[in-house]
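Dock tetrahydrodeoxyuridine; give full complex structure.
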Amino acid sequence: MTDAELIELSEEAMKYAYSPYSRFEVGAAILCESGKVYSGCNVENATFGATNCAERTAVFKAVSEGSADFEAIAITSSGGGLTFPCGICRQVLAEFSPQIRVVLKSEDGEISSFTLSELLPHGFALDKQ
Ligand code: THU
C-alpha cells in the first residue's frame, strides 16, 4: 500500500464524517503491519466533549478487531492543507505504535509524512503490567 493509496482511503472515509456542529470533516486510514487498513471519520456529539476524532475512530476500530500494530496513518480534512492530528490522537497513537508514520497531503497535492516521535516528542508512557 503506497502513501497515496492510504491518503485516498482517508479521503473516502471523510465522506462519512458526522460533523453537523463544526462542519469540519475529517477522514483517517490506518495501515496495520498485517497490511489490513481500517478507516474512520470524526463523529461529533451535541455535548461537544463526546466527539471522537477520525484518527481515534480508526484506531479503536482496529484495536477492537484485534489489530494493534500500526505502520502508518493518513489524515485528510475538508479544511484542505495539512491536517495534523490533535494532541489526544497523538497520545492514543503512541499507546500502540510510537514509530507510526503520519501521512498528510498538502493543498497542492504533495504527500509528506512525519514520524509520531517528531509530532509527540517525550510523550507520556507507563510500563505495561
Ligand atoms: N478532528 C479530528 O477528527 N481529528 C483531529 O485530529 C482534530 C479534530 C475533528 C473533531 C471535530 O469533529 C472537528 O474536527 C473540529 O474540531
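Observed: Strands lie at 26-32, 37-41, 70-77, 101-105, 111-115.
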